[in-house]
Specification:
With 207 residues, this protein is α/β, with parallel strands linked by helices. The chain has one domain: Maf protein, CATH 3.90.950. The chain is globular. The chain has five helices and six strands.
Length: 207
């Protein structure tokens, strides 16, 4: 890919936790990040049928509104026993107040009602970068694991406390930021879904 991600960019989110993680991921590359919220940009309606489509909707709107390259993430938790729900509706399950404790309780309740013995789940993070001239790039990362109920930990955000990634005994909610989304220097896969997607983005657009 001939385009690169440099200088000042817009992170197309109004989610404080997501903004913090994205800034931490971008910091080592000298990219200055300002959020859509800080610029007073609105939140477009996410009408896509998958994570990548919604990430592109947000990035396109921010690039157009700010006249700068825009970086957007659409992510969510997909639960096997619920046929992949909440999936792209993960944020909506938390309601207008973004009450993820309530959303996690709903997942536990619906899994119990499903009659399935499976507690498998995976996180998906789709990243989209859109430039003002219309150039676009997309990347997608996934991490698989098991649901943890009751939820454990206060680190991270969203559904982190109810997800234990494969090969680990602690939930994302019990992990420090550096462990969850640090990029290994040896090139091995990062732990979190967002860090894995960012790993691919960095290789294509930042290095």
């Amino acid at each position: 890919m001939s385009v690169k991600l440099t200088g000042r960019i817009v992170i197309a989110t109004h989610n404080a936790g997501k903004l913090r993680e994205m800034r931490e991921l971008l910091a080592p590359y000298g990219v200055e990040a300002v959020s859509a919220g800080e610029l007073g940009l609105g939140e477009p309606e996410e009408t896509g049928s998958d994570f990548l489509s919604n990430a592109l909707i947000k990035a396109r709107a921010a690039a157009k509104g700010a006249g700068l390259p825009a970086f957007a993430d659409d992510s969510g938790l997909c639960v096997e026993a619920l046929g992949g729900a909440p999936g792209i509706y993960s944020a909506r399950w938390a309601g207008e107040g973004k009450d993820f404790a309530l959303a996690m309780a709903r997942i536990a309740d619906e899994v119990g009602k499903s009659g399935s013995a499976s507690r498998r789940a995976h996180f998906v993070s789709a990243l989209a970068v859109v430039w003002p001239d219309g150039a676009e790039a997309t990347f997608e990362g996934k991490v698989f694991g098991d649901l943890a109920f009751p939820p454990r930990g206060t680190a991270g955000f969203g559904y982190d406390p109810c997800f234990t990634p494969d090969g680990h005994a602690r939930t994302f909610g019990e992990m420090a930021a550096e462990e969850k989304h640090g990029i290994p220097a040896d090139g091995s896969p990062a732990l979190s879904h967002r860090a894995r997607a960012f790993q691919m983005l960095a290789a294509a657009l930042l290095k």
